[in-house]
Specification:
By secondary structure, this protein is of the alpha/beta class. It contains six helices and seven strands, in the order H-E-H-E-H-E-E-H-E-H-E-E-H. A five-stranded mixed beta sheet has the order 2-5-6-1-7, with helices on both faces. Strands 3-4 form a two-stranded antiparallel ribbon.
């Protein structure tokens, strides 16, 4: 697919706010779309959906993390800032916004996908792309439409 045709992802992402993407299982093809988003002025935050826990808390709220307990030390909870807000504060002034690119999105439940589709409505600078499955070629649709199906 020529690179000129990949500008469509920027327009579709700005229009929908969140996209559900299907990519070939061997990978590599989605890199050209990430490059187009970077060239359009977006910063990209790569996250895997496996082991993410509470999606809303991890991305938008301060949340506690407990490292594994080794027996002789006291149990501690460390509070980590929200991933999205932390990255938004560090964006360059000329940046359009932040794209949260989630791989392995097929492991997320319907409720978690629904929560992710609502994040761009709360903050228009944040866009979401979730790799929800595999296909022979790279295809995408609005995440709200994919959740409803």
């Amino acid at each position: 697919m020529p690179l000129i045709a990949t500008d469509k992802i920027v327009k579709d992402l700005e229009k929908a706010g969140a996209l559900a993407m299907r990519v070939p299982p061997e990978g590599g093809y989605e890199g050209r779309y990430q490059l187009r988003l970077k060239n359009a002025g977006y910063e990209i935050l790569f996250i895997t959906a496996r082991g993410l826990g509470d999606v809303n808390s991890y991305l938008t709220d301060v949340h506690g993390v407990r490292p594994s307990h080794l027996g002789k030390t006291e149990i501690r909870t460390y509070f980590i800032p929200p991933a999205i807000q932390f990255r938004l504060n560090a964006l360059p002034a000329k940046s359009k916004g932040l794209v949260v690119w989630l791989i392995e999105g097929k492991y997320l439940s319907k409720e978690e996908l629904e929560t992710l589709s609502q994040i761009p409505d709360r903050d228009p600078r944040v866009k979401i792309v979730i790799e929800t499955g595999s296909d022979r070629e790279v295809t995408w649709q609005p995440l709200k439409q994919a959740v409803a199906a």
